[in-house]
Specification:
The chain is mainly α. 72% of the residues lie in helices and 0% in strands. The protein contains 13 helices and no strands. The chain has helices spanning 2-10, 14-25, 30-42, 50-62, 66-78, 86-98, 102-114, 122-134, 138-150, 158-170, 174-186, 194-206, 210-221. Helix 12 (194-206) packs across helix 13 (210-221).
Length: 227
């Protein structure tokens, strides 16, 4: 029944999906509770209700459903349907991270890097960025690369930074493309290659990276490149 509910949801047949998720939720199915919470939060097939969304996420969270725990964290972080509480948000993010939810691992790392709802801790941030990166989060690859480049929380390691930026860049992340371009330009973790630096800067600019766009404009104005 759960798969049928998801099939209906993906086909935008929200009334059917809602009915099936509700039936499963009565059986305390954690995935159904979480999905039902999302439908109430977004107003899909039912009237939008943050109160109902919070209640359903909380029920699913009691059953250790990581998506629900993550969504609860976002509600606390945004003050959506509940009082803003960055410390509670971080507590929930970390709980979902421990349950191997990649986006929560990335958000936990970001919180630790910036000291949001917790004591700033670069080494813990690096740990969670690496966990998220292992599960394919491209932003985590980029941010982990920054920590290795700067030596924040980890030994400075340009070769590892280069690898991290390469993974993010190849996944078409503009920030990763820009950072990889800088590594090629400065010869950090690689042989200096100004053609490669320019190519990655172009890609970052094409993907909307503002600093990269400014560099490309400057080079065009100086007549050094034709874009």
């Amino acid at each position: 029944m759960l798969q049928t509910a998801f099939d209906a949801f993906n086909a935008h047949d929200y009334p059917k999906a809602l009915e099936l998720f509700e039936r499963l939720a009565l059986q305390n199915n954690p995935t159904a509770l979480s999905s039902l919470g999302y439908m109430h939060q977004q107003g899909l097939g039912t009237e939008r209700s943050l109160e109902n969304a919070f209640r359903l996420y909380a029920q699913a969270a009691e059953l250790d459903e990581p998506t629900a725990i993550y969504n609860l964290a976002l509600m606390y972080a945004d003050g959506a349907g509940v009082a803003h509480d960055q410390f509670k948000a971080f507590e929930l993010l970390l709980r979902a991270a421990i349950l191997e939810f990649p986006q929560a691992q990335y958000e936990s790392a970001l919180s630790l890097e910036r000291g949001l709802g917790c004591v700033q801790n670069f080494s813990e941030a690096a740990f969670w960025y690496e966990e998220a990166a292992k599960r394919g989060n491209v932003n985590a690859f980029n941010n982990l690369g920054v920590l290795y480049k700067e030596g924040h929380g980890v030994p400075q390691d340009y070769a590892r930074a280069f690898i991290c930026f390469s993974r993010a860049a190849q996944a078409n992340l503009a920030e990763g493309q820009y950072n990889l371009g800088l590594m090629f330009d400065q010869g950090l973790g690689c042989d200096a290659d100004h053609d490669a630096a320019l190519e990655w800067c172009r890609k970052a600019a094409y993907n909307g990276h503002e600093k990269a766009k400014a560099i490309i404009r400057s080079l065009q104005e100086e007549g050094k490149i034709v874009f």
